[in-house]
Fold:
Amino acid sequence: MSVLSAADVAAHESASHVRVLARIPAGHPRGSWPAEQLAAENAADVVMDLKTDDYLVVTRAVAVAR
Structure:
């Protein structure tokens, strides 16, 4: 299994225009509810990362004009 450094995660997020707000294990006692609640609070989406068996709360990154 490959673990990304903070710099690699930042580079990936900026390249894919998706920001991961949270990772919640699929085995959480309350299931996907914490991910769904966080997504509702942040106008985000919940997707499943099958490789790590986590729910990801993701939102589109806003491009900043320079």
